[in-house]
Specification:
mainly beta, three-stranded antiparallel beta sheet
C-alpha cells in the first residue's frame, strides 16, 4: 500500500513593511540547489505587513524583501534578509485587513492570509 502524500507543513510569516511608503514589497527566496536568490514562486510581491503561509522547510533567513514602487517611479529599497514568524494570537493582525487591489503592474497579491 502506498502512503498518501502529505502537504508540506506551513507557518504564518509576516512580511514587515517597515517604512515602505509605497505599501508593496518584493519577495525572493534563496534556492539552495542553484545557490542564488529567485523571485518567490507563490507571491513575488505582497502588500506591506501582509501575512502569508510559508513551507517550514524554508528557513526565515532564506527569504528577503525590499520595498518597491510598482509604477517604477522610485528605485527599490535595499534588500532585508528575513521575515517574522507570527505567533497564533497575533495572526489576527493580518486576518482582518481589507481586501487589497493589485499594484499597477497587475502582479499579486493582497493582504489577506492565503
Amino acid at each position: 500500500m502506498v502512503a498518501p502524500e502529505r502537504a508540506p507543513a506551513v507557518a504564518w510569516v509576516l512580511y514587515p513593511g517597515g517604512e515602505c511608503e509605497t505599501g508593496w514589497i518584493e519577495v525572493e527566496r534563496y534556492d539552495r540547489e542553484i545557490r542564488a536568490w529567485r523571485a518567490h514562486a507563490h507571491h513575488p510581491r505582497v502588500r506591506a505587513d501582509a501575512c502569508r503561509r510559508e513551507d517550514v522547510s524554508s528557513l526565515l533567513n532564506e527569504l528577503r524583501v525590499r520595498c518597491i514602487d510598482p509604477s517604477g517611479a522610485r528605485p527599490p529599497s535595499p534588500w532585508r534578509v528575513g521575515a517574522e514568524l507570527q505567533k497564533p494570537l497575533s495572526r489576527d493582525r493580518c486576518a482582518f485587513r481589507p481586501p487589497e487591489t493589485k499594484p499597477e503592474d497587475g502582479s499579486t497579491s493582497g493582504g489577506r492570509p492565503e
